[in-house]
Known about the structure:
This protein is mostly beta strands. Helices cover 8% and strands 45% of the residues. It is built from one helix and eight strands, in the order αββββββββ. A hairpin with a 2-residue loop joins strand 1 and strand 2.
Amino acid sequence: MIAAAAAAAYVMPRAESSNVDAPQSKAPAEWFELYHAGASTGCTLHKGAPAGTGRVTLKLDGCADDLAEYADARYWSERDDGAVALVAADGAVLLQFAAGDGTAYEAFGDGVPLFSLAEKND
C-alpha cells in the first residue's frame, strides 16, 4: 500500500510546476502584409488603437497606386465569425477577409480580387 502511494506521488505532476510548461498565449498580430494572387503588393497594414464598436484604427504603408480603391481603409473590424473587414471612414466596407490557414486571411465577396493578408514578421 505504501509503495502504491509512493508510486502515485512520483507519477502525478506537482501542482506548483503545472504552469511552468504551459504554452503562453500568442498576442494578436498587429502588422499584416497584403498579397495579390500570391505576390506581395508591398502594402503593409498596421492595427492601431481601439476605435470602438469592435474596430481598431488602421494605417496602410507602401500601398501601390493600383490599390487606390482600397487606400481609404481606416479601420480593421473583427467579426464574431472570425472574418475581418477593412472599413473606410464613412463606414463603407472596402474588403472582407475570412480566416484562412494559420495567420492568413483570404478576401471574399462578389468581384473581389484574389487578395490575402498574412501576419508580417519583422
